[in-house]
Design a protein that fits this description.
The chain has 297 residues and is α/β, with parallel strands linked by helices. It contains ten helices and ten strands. Helix 1 links the parallel strand 3 and strand 4.
């Protein structure tokens, strides 16, 4: 008798959970019996930005990729308030709701900052951590901002928020025109990559045009306290092996050269040539050649 075959998973299933009364979205690539792997995207991005990585790793892991609040198909925060701690809360809620820990995490940019902070708060829940440029602004930028009095930082934040309140989301006549704008932002992207990211990153307006799904208020630089010593103390609590990845053509500084590596107990930093801020898009094969053995070791 012929054995039944399991149909190939073409794409992920969409699901939702609730955090701080917000309905938040995530995609689940199946393979529930495998070790859990969480993919956390960066700012102004979305869960489907990980599709190429997810497809490459889904046979070995139960891959889940959330849309951060204010991004993708997740709800926008009431009042447009987005802080690192609220993003960490959302990730903690997802992990707890689905019972994912202990788990592995691959993250990018804002998502990297969120994942690293989660691992510092719950070091026993993370087995492996990959962060692509997730350490935040370079130290010199932090130092400059830290020396600005708090009343000036709050005033700047108020002016930025008020400016955004009068700003209408940009409308594109077609998906192709929006994809062209994305490719201008990252010339490393192929036309196929740009279109895929755009198809999942835009919503159709009532007049037939397209706008990006992310909340413009998520752009605002919140006037939080930037304390390098506190951040290093958090990073020092991370127990798991950690891989920090950076593109040599990115704005992000080298954590080995700028001293931030010293805060980590068990981390390795890798610079990837011919890649900008989105290393997992710009050099996918190299990225996977680094991540696969690291996650499985």
């Amino acid at each position: 008798m012929r054995e039944p075959t399991t149909p190939e998973i073409i794409g992920p299933a969409s699901s939702y959970y609730v955090s701080q009364r917000l309905k938040l979205h995530y995609v689940d690539w199946g393979n529930e019996s495998a070790p859990p792997l969480l993919l956390v995207h960066g700012g102004k991005d979305h869960a489907r930005s990980w599709d190429w990585v997810a497809r490459a790793l889904r046979d070995d892991y139960h891959v889940i990729a959330p849309d951060l609040r204010g991004h993708g198909d997740s709800a926008w925060a009431l009042g447009g308030h987005y802080t690192i701690h609220e993003f960490v809360l959302d990730i903690a809620q997802l992990i707890e709701t689905l019972g994912l820990h202990p788990l592995r995490i691959v993250s990018h940019s804002l998502g990297g900052a969120v994942a690293l902070q989660y691992a510092s708060i719950y070091p026993d829940r993370v087995e492996k951590m990959v962060a692509i440029e997730g350490l935040g602004p370079p130290p010199e930028m932090i130092e400059k901002y830290r020396n600005v009095p708090i009343w000036e930082r709050v005033d700047e934040w108020i002016r930025d928020v008020r400016g955004l309140s009068s700003r209408s989301p940009r409308r594109y006549p077609t998906i192709d025109s929006a994809a062209a704008r994305m490719q201008e932002e990252n010339p490393h992207l192929s036309p196929e990559q740009s279109r895929h990211l755009t198809v999942h990153g835009v919503a159709r307006n009532e007049d037939g045009t397209f706008s990006w799904k992310f909340d413009n208020y998520a752009r605002v630089f919140y006037p939080q306290s930037w304390n390098p010593e506190e951040r290093q103390l958090l990073w020092s609590r991370i127990d798991c092996p950690t891989l920090l990845i950076r593109g040599t053509e990115s704005w992000a500084s080298d954590p080995t050269a700028d001293g931030r590596m010293e805060a980590f107990r068990n981390a390795r930093a890798v610079n990837v040539e011919d890649a900008g801020h989105w290393v997992h898009h710009d050099q996918l094969d190299i990225f996977l050649s680094l991540v696969r053995p690291f996650l499985s070791s």
